[in-house]
From TrEMBL:
InterPro entries cross-referenced by the UniProt entry: Rossmann-like_a/b/a_fold (IPR014729), Universal_stress_UspA (IPR006015), UspA (IPR006016)
PANTHER family: STRESS RESPONSE PROTEIN NHAX (PTHR46268), UNIVERSAL STRESS PROTEIN UP12 (PTHR46268:SF6)
Family, as annotated: Belongs to the universal stress protein A family.
Region (Disordered): 39-60
Superkingdom of origin organism: Bacteria
Location of the UspA domain: 10-146, 158-296
The protein, known as: Nucleotide-binding universal stress protein, UspA family
Naturally occurring in which organism (per UniProt): Rhodococcus tukisamuensis
Amino acid sequence: MTTAPIRHGIVAGIDGSDSAMDAARWAAGAAQRFDEPLHLTHLLPKTPKSADGTSTEPEEKLDDQLLAEGDELLDAAEKAVREANPDVVVERSVKHGPPARGLVDLSRTARMLVLGRAGTSEMQSVFLGSDVIRVANNAKCPVAVWRGTHAPDDTASRPVVVGVDGSKLSDLAVAHAFEFAAFFEVPLIAVHCWREVAGFGGYSEARRFSDLEVHEQRSDARLAERLAGWGERYPDVKVTRSVERVGPNVALLEHTEEAQLVVVGSHGRNPFVASLIGSTSQSLIHHALCPVLVCREG
């Protein structure tokens, strides 16, 4: 018999960027609310090589230098997170290896990973790759990607938004969205999207508006069904249902203007496949105006 790993701690990846520092501050606030330790981690890059494939400096000297630089980055991150959350429990680690692989390894036992914004555009992610996308596609726990420029004080009362499409991954996103809304003591907006599909019966005005009304009513009923039970579990969370006749990429992106967090499920498509058939999570990672929480089955 196998048992699920115990999920412990919120892990923030620190790479020296301003975005990673903002992500760490957000992670510290979440860790404080969830009563979890905050684990700050820095992944060391590969040892630089010369043109003939040998190290440009003695390996031990380079390792010492990189370790010292990593510790400095973690010092700065710890100082920043304690300014707003002085009581948060902070753990730290500097690890060797490719960042994406190291973070995915940490995700096996973490409650959540938190990363800075993707350093590539959607098109660059297709051809060059992106560590943020790799982690979001392969992590064994939810991954929060920092987006937005609002200060925490400006977002404290903003709602959490969750995309609901009826899939198992969407149900997982709903569970995490209710949890966040409850811990952050804010409302929840549940968004379900649909698009009108042409039929063989033509497009008479009477039929079109009649069909739309019926379809919207059915969609709202399905949305209510997917949310059933969660209101009883989190009675203090005020829930608003929103059925929208537009693609999820467009609808959820618009909601990020008013939200403090948007939560979605993800199938973990690679960027090339996502560019062909679409990926709501990857679109939000690159364009959202607030942090994005991507949920996958671990």
